[in-house]
Write a structure and sequence with these properties.
Radius of gyration: 25 Å
Helix content: 40-55%
Strand content: 15-25%
CATH topology of the largest domain: 2-enoyl-CoA Hydratase, Chain A, domain 1
Structural class: alpha/beta
Number of domains: 2
Number of strands: 22
Largest sheet: 8 strands, mixed
CATH class of the largest domain: Alpha Beta
Number of helices: 24
Length: 589
């Protein structure tokens, strides 16, 4: 219950109080984008100030659906479109509001300006009414997937790449080895955009009351002017922001505006519900966002957020020892990385399940390669239709940068003992014997990955391997092939976790865990199972030293183990964190 008295001034606004009996029109501003998870460090929090989180928005809309004071929602879609997976989740939350009888309107200056507006418009069609500015467009042009190839650049720089891959669809290796797309890669990408197109067409047709044939015909002619889009039934109204709001006030009467983020975070609202939440069973949510590596998780301006196996493993152990936790949702947004780190996390997921607590994996935009590896041991796997997943394959090798360094006047010499001591040196190529060892190692990793995936998914190994070979799937296709169990967002994952614990969704409290205190973040952990062991590194500590110019070898490592060349690659979206990786720049938009 909210208080029946208003708190005046800035404090009242900050706490989210309202006039007694006020009717609320919620505003959802998506122009800044959406965060998948809360900031992991003070630096990240400053960079993401006032950017809403997907979970925060979905939870607030879920709450609003049951709030009699909320009469509607108006959303503003801007140039920064959500991803297709995020749109899948938001559409479900908007549908809940509509079912509850709330008026929902989406407006945008343009759904794509001189470029695609696929996903922004996809989200808009979940609302009762879609508006576009008279000077805008409806850029429902269809999805596109793009691949980057650096072979010619590396040849000019004098960088020699030696990489092995398992198998033909493990296209991350092509970034370095080829100047153009291979046929298996083209086949895979073609199916990815076809699957995304199927999702777009089906959802737009359903949302707008059109046939799928009508939507596909519109795609072939897009981008469409506002007048043509209206004639085709793609938008309802053409107008500017002031006209949108004037129309809503005429329909809804006297309303107070409130951002969804303020509505959801109101301190008084939380305090008012604290009594009802006390002693409720807990579904714990653990975030796993970014490339996967050994050591501690980190967050830096250069490379963004990463998943450290030590941090996530400690988090899984911590919730396993908490009697209030009845189930766990592992929220994954990762293109993969280190094989060994991924295997460490998988083992802790299995150990958590042995404690009697069900584990549900919830896939966000991407949970592929190593990201799929840490999801597959869960009791239940939930993905969005637009999630990128699978990529069950492996690649490994090194880049030889001796010639590049020579061109800029740098010469390196080394002394070693042992036949293979300098095998992964970036000063020279592998010899035949060393390359044979790399190939055997890649086979071993691939065999292990596919055998464990088959075991976790309850498949025969050969059945699983037919779906593997490094191939990336959309969540929709992954469901058809048995690689995931259900299509849905975080709410569906929470409900599934509660159900597996023998509880109703309404009877559980979701908590992001563990949540070390500010003091614990800066203090050294007392042991490997203390809350402080779950804290991520941030800022300069995460960057570590630049180290030498050598590569991180076939297994990859944490941010501080990357070579100078690899650090430069981070800025291109090709972060070489390990052998279970996919091209991290891929998104379906």
């Amino acid at each position: 219950m909210k208080p029946s008295f208003p708190i005046p001034g800035p404090l009242g606004a900050a706490l989210g109080s309202r006039r007694p009996g006020a009717r609320l029109l919620l505003e959802l501003d998506l122009t800044r984008g959406l965060l998948e998870s809360p900031p992991a460090s003070p630096v990240e929090a400053l960079r993401a100030m006032h950017v809403p989180t997907l979970r925060g928005v979905v939870e607030a809309l879920h709450k609003a659906a049951a709030d009699e004071h909320v009469v509607g929602l108006v959303a503003h879609v801007g140039a920064r479109q959500p991803t297709l997976a995020q749109s899948n989740e938001l559409r479900a939350a908007v549908a809940e509001l509509r079912t509850a009888g709330k008026r929902t309107v989406c407006w945008s200056e343009t759904y794509g300006e001189m470029g695609p507006g696929n996903v922004g418009y996809h989200l808009a069609t979940a609302f009762d009414e879609v508006w576009v500015q008279p000077s805008g467009d409806v850029g429902l042009v269809g999805p596109v997937a793009q691949a980057v190839f650096l072979r010619d650049t590396f040849d000019r720089l004098g960088v020699e790449t030696q990489l092995g891959q398992r198998h033909e669809y493990k296209s991350a290796a092509e970034t370095f080895l080829r100047s153009s797309m291979s046929e298996p890669n083209r086949e895979m990408l073609t199916r990815l955009v076809e699957s995304a197109m199927e999702t777009l067409v089906a959802d737009v047709a359903s949302g707008r009351g059109l046939s799928e044939e009508d939507v596909r015909a519109a795609v072939e002619e897009a981008p469409l002017s506002p007048s043509v889009a209206r004639e085709r039934g793609l938008v309802d109204r053409v107008g500017y922001r002031d006209e949108v709001y004037d129309d809503l006030r005429r329909r809804l009467g006297d309303v107070e505006l409130r951002y969804v983020t303020r509505y959801g975070k109101g301190a008084l609202a939380q305090a008012g519900s604290a009594v009802s939440r006390r002693n409720r069973p807990v579904v714990a949510m653990i975030h796993a966002a970014g490339p996967i590596h050994l050591g501690r998780s980190s967050s830096t301006p250069l490379s963004g957020r990463s998943i450290g196996s030590d941090t996530v493993a400690a988090a899984l152990r911590t919730v396993a020892s908490d009697d209030d936790v009845k189930a766990v949702v592992l929220r994954i947004n990762s293109p993969g990385g280190s094989y060994v780190a991924s295997d460490t996390i998988r083992r802790e997921v299995l150990a958590l399940r042995r404690s009697g607590r069900p584990v549900v994996a919830s896939m966000a935009d991407v949970a592929a390669s190593g990201g799929y590896y840490i999801a597959m041991p869960a009791d239940h796997v939930v993905a969005c239709a637009g999630t990128l997943t699978g990529s069950i394959g492996v690649l490994g090798g090194k880049q030889v940068i001796h010639e590049m360094l020579r061109k800029i006047g740098v010469n390196r010499e080394s002394v070693s003992t042992g036949r293979y001591a300098d095998m992964f040196s970036t000063d020279r190529p592998f010899d035949e014997d060393e390359w044979a060892r790399v190939e055997r190692w890649l086979d071993r990793v691939y065999d292990d990955f596919t055998a464990k995936a088959a075991e976790d998914r309850g498949m025969e190994v050969e059945q699983l391997r037919a779906l593997a070979r490094g191939r990336v799937w959309t969540g929709a296709d992954a469901l058809r092939h048995g690689l995931v169990d259900e299509l849905g967002g975080l709410e569906q994952a929470i409900a599934a976790a509660a159900s597996r614990a023998g509880l109703a969704r309404a009877d559980v409290e979701l908590k992001v865990m563990p949540k070390p205190s500010l003091v614990e973040r800066f203090m050294p952990p007392e042991n490997s199972e203390s809350p402080a062991a779950t804290a991520a590194l941030g800022g300069l500590a995460a960057l570590g030293g630049l180290g030498g110019l050598g590569g991180s070898g076939a297994s990859g490592g944490g941010p501080s183990s990357l070579s100078v060349v690899e650090r430069l690659l981070v800025t291109t979206g090709v972060a070489p964190y390990g052998v279970l990786s996919m091209p991290v720049g891929w998104r379906l938009r």
